[in-house]
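In the lab's daily routine, each protein ends up as an entry in a very long ledger. A line of letters takes care of the sequence, but it says nothing directly about the fold. The three-dimensional part falls to structure tokens, numbers that each stand for a local backbone shape. The outcome of that step, for a single protein, is printed below.
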Amino acid sequence: MFDEEGIRDLERRAAECWPPFSQGILEGWQLRFSEGVSRRANSVLALEETGSSALDLRIDAAEKFYRQRGLPCRFQISGAVAPHGLDAELERRGYVIEARTLVMTADAASVVKNLADRQALRFRARLFSGPTGAWFQVYGGGLAQGRERGLRCRLAEGLPAPRAYAVVDDGTEPAAVGAAVIRDDWALILCMATRDGYRRRGHAARVLAALAAWAADTDRARRLFLQVESDNRPAMALYHLAGFQAAHTYYYRTQTQAAPNDALPDTADRDNA
């Protein structure tokens, strides 16, 4: 498992790879906002402290930031959270735990090797520099129709470069997709999805292998990381098969009751996306 500095480094990279629509900065905390879609993109990432305000006042200010935007306040809690007493204070305030998540890592070249026998020429993955209609057909197909689907696809479309979007077809139909974003010697795997009716055919493994090969193409020593909720057993089985190992865990603390609408000063710098 990673130490505190290693966790902090990975979490910073993950935040860069999945940018929110906008964010505020509150004494080193990142207050991410994306209209309520995606926990990561609508939560406080508290990895450093750059101010001297009391913790309770900072939490009050974060709660006001989200209250003004119609959302409950939510914090992403990992082993690198700053300050260390934040989780206990949120528990005292009645925040509940959501979405326990495992962060896993692997060498890109090893993943390609481990999944080599899962490849088949007739299911060759296609790689694109941006999401295509076929990519959105699969990724969006697993999401609720309407506003949520549109906003989440907008987030997926906004991945920073260098990036790759993978599509695996089954016959004439797109069956599985995924994406990857490179940050220095790391690449984040994300947006993995397989259409109903095409599961358990090895398509997700083919997507993962294609993205790993792309990440390793210019740097055979590059490492991969990904985030998977702890109760997602099919995904966990695939990632273990590919050679991923646990690096650290995180979860979210979410406010269960809105704070009073008092007039605390809003100390967050808004929309510094």
Summary: The mean pLDDT is 91. The first strand starts at residue 22 and ends at 26. DSSP finds eight helices and eleven strands in the chain.
